[in-house]
Amino acid sequence: AQAYIQYEEVQAADAARHSRLGTSSQLAREPSHRGGDRRKGDRSREPRGPPSTFANYTPLNKSREAILAECNSSEFTKVG
């Protein structure tokens, strides 16, 4: 009977140790609140649109007015 009592005491000690470790590990898993309020903020962000397909482009060397004037003065051939 004495061996059984010692076994129960060891089991109870292990359970108590694991429960203490469980709460400290749960605290460690929770995110820190340092700067969390600043990040969330009161204002909501506007959703961004889809990513641009034109990541790199060459800017025009002429003004839009000059390009449109050239398009207006050019003659196009009729197709079909």
Q: Can you put this structure into words, describing what you see?
A:
There is one protein chain. The chain is an all-alpha fold. Helix content is 54%, strand content 0%. It has 3 helices and no strands. The longest helix is centred in the N-terminal third of the chain and has 28 residues, at 2-29. It is rod-shaped, with a radius of gyration of 36 Å. The mean pLDDT is 75.
Structural class: mainly alpha
Average pLDDT: 75
**Helix fraction bin:** 40-55%
State the end-to-end distance: 106 Å
Write down the Rg: 36 Å
The helix/strand series, from N terminus to C terminus, equals HHH
Beta-strand residue fraction: under 5%
Question: What general outline do the C-alpha atoms trace?
Answer: rod-shaped
The count of DSSP E runs of length 2 or more, i.e. the number of strands, is 0
Question: Can you summarize the main beta sheet?
Answer: none
Query: How many DSSP H or I helices?
Result: 3
Low-pLDDT segments, ≥5 res: none
Biased composition (Basic and acidic residues): 30-48
Region (Disordered): 12-61
